[in-house]
Design brief:
Elements: H1 5-23, H2 32-44, E1 49-51, E2 58-64, E3 70-76, H3 103-120, E4 125-132, H4 140-146, H5 149-152, E5 157-164, E6 172-174, E7 177-180, E8 182-191, E9 195-196, H6 206-224, E10 231-240, E11 246-247, E12 250-259, H7 262-282, E13 286-295, E14 298-300, H8 302-316, E15 321-323, H9 333-339, E16 342-348, H10 377-394
Helix pairs in contact: 1-3, 1-10, 3-10, 6-7, 8-10
This protein binds zinc ion (2 copies).
Length: about 400
């Protein structure tokens, strides 16, 4: 693995910043302290800072030479609403808030790169360091774009990475095309007429209609969409009734839909609505159907993905760069990729051997109360970002 020597030498100071952020996690659009810390570090290193895109977003601007070319590197900065189980010194100071997805580490890796890029400037053009709030459900990427990210800071491409527990540190996973799914929610309310449970003929029971609906939705997956298109419908909550001898007057159904393409999503939404309305009609209940699209699918662009694969292979060895197995999880980097070419990939967080005294049970996946980012990745990820930015700006324009 070819690490950049000054980044390796500087890693302990960046690790201290990472642990500071970890100890002070902040949720979607409330990342004031985190944004202050990032802006202060960038300013200390002589990097001009723009704040306020997506409320708490921070953009660092590292320019060199005369070229108009530019590339973006993105780190997400928010934490999750959950309580940390770890007992080490840098564990969360705030009950109910935790950096359980490693966005503290993503921030640290990009800060390591920022410092080096500013102090060495081995490129001609501009590197935009995009510190994005509210990845965990808030759509911070969408908000930064709405506030003019790409108009104020036009870039040829944008790159992002997520740490991945269970994959060795020093290994990467890359893939062109869809890598994360679209994430969507549905909310259905069925209204009938309450009655004594012993006299069902005097009421209109919404429960049998709800049962039919839940079953029928799965036929969209097996009978309507093309078998080779991935799609998931999960009904995750059903609420009705309070007593064994009362027929409830309403029933609420909620759940999630995941797809890799917008075409499949359009089909599933249309069919779910038709099935819900038709079953409701058949059972003589009223039906209110609401479908909410959250994150679109994350679809990597081919040329930019090939670029990342080549650079990571040259840095780490081609045997360390695996094919990214797509998952039906979601990631709001997708909004950037709808507007600008780029690639989102995975960097291994190790097998858990970085876990020392004070850790809760593990090894564990992201969003686990015992998770912690592996600080070994700071010089690795910092070197990776510098290499990608320099290589992008120094290569001949296609
Ligand atoms: Zn997460
Ligand atoms: Zn995450």
């Amino acid at each position: 693995m070819q690490l950049i020597a000054p980044i390796l030498a500087d890693a302990p100071s960046i690790k201290a910043l990472r642990r500071d952020i970890h100890a002070h996690p902040e949720l979607c659009f409330q990342e004031e302290r985190t944004a202050d810390l990032i802006a202060r570090a960038l300013s200390d290193w002589g990097i001009p800072v723009h704040r306020g895109l997506g409320k708490t977003g921070v953009v660092g601007i590292v320019k060199n030479g005369t070229s108009k070319r530019a590339v973006g590197l993105r780190a997400d900065i928010d934490a999750l609403p959950m309580t940390e189980h770890n007992q080490f010194a840098h564990a969360s100071n705030y009950p109910g808030k935790m950096h359980a997805c490693g966005h503290d580490g993503h921030t640290a890796m990009l800060l390591a790169a920022a410092k080096h890029l500013s102090q060495h400037r081995n490129f001609d053009g501009t590197v935009y360091l995009v510190f994005q709030p509210a990845e965990e459900g808030g759509g911070g990427a969408r908000e930064m774009i709405k506030d003019g990210l790409f108009e104020q800071f036009p870039m040829e491409a944008i790159f992002g990475a997520h740490n991945w527990p269970g994959m060795a540190a020093g290994e990467f996973a890359v893939k062109s095309g869809p890598v994360f799914a679209s994430s969507n929610e549905f909310f259905i309310t069925l209204r009938g007429k309450g009655a004594h449970a012993a006299m069902p003929h005097l009421g209109i029971d919404p429960v049998p209609a709800a049962c039919q609906m839940v079953q029928a939705f799965q036929t969209i997956i097996t009978r309507n969409k093309r078998p080779i298109d991935a799609g998931v419908i999960s009904v995750t909550t059903i609420h009705a009734g309070e007593a064994t001898n009362v027929i409830p007057d309403s029933c609420h159904i909620e759940g999630t839909v995941r797809t890799f393409t917008l075409e499949t999503l359009d089909l599933i939404e249309r069919r779910m609505q038709a099935i819900a309305q038709s079953i409701a009609e058949a059972f003589e209940v009223d039906c209110e159907f609401r479908f909410k699209r959250n994150y679109p699918p994350t679809i990597n662009h081919e040329a930019e993905t090939e670029f990342v694969r080549q650079q990571l292979s040259a840095m780490a060895g081609s045997d360390k760069v695996q094919e990214f197995e797509p998952t039906m999880g979601a990631e709001d980097f997708s909004f950037f990729l709808q507007k600008t070419p780029g690639c989102y990939f995975l960097i291994g967080n190790g097998d858990g051997s970085h876990r020392e005294g004070g850790h809760g049970l593990g090894p564990c996946m992201l969003h686990n109360p015992s998770y912690d980012f592996n600080d070994e990745l700071i010089p690795l990820g910092g070197s990776m970002w510098v290499r990608l930015a320099e290589a992008w700006l120094n290569r001949p324009q296609p």
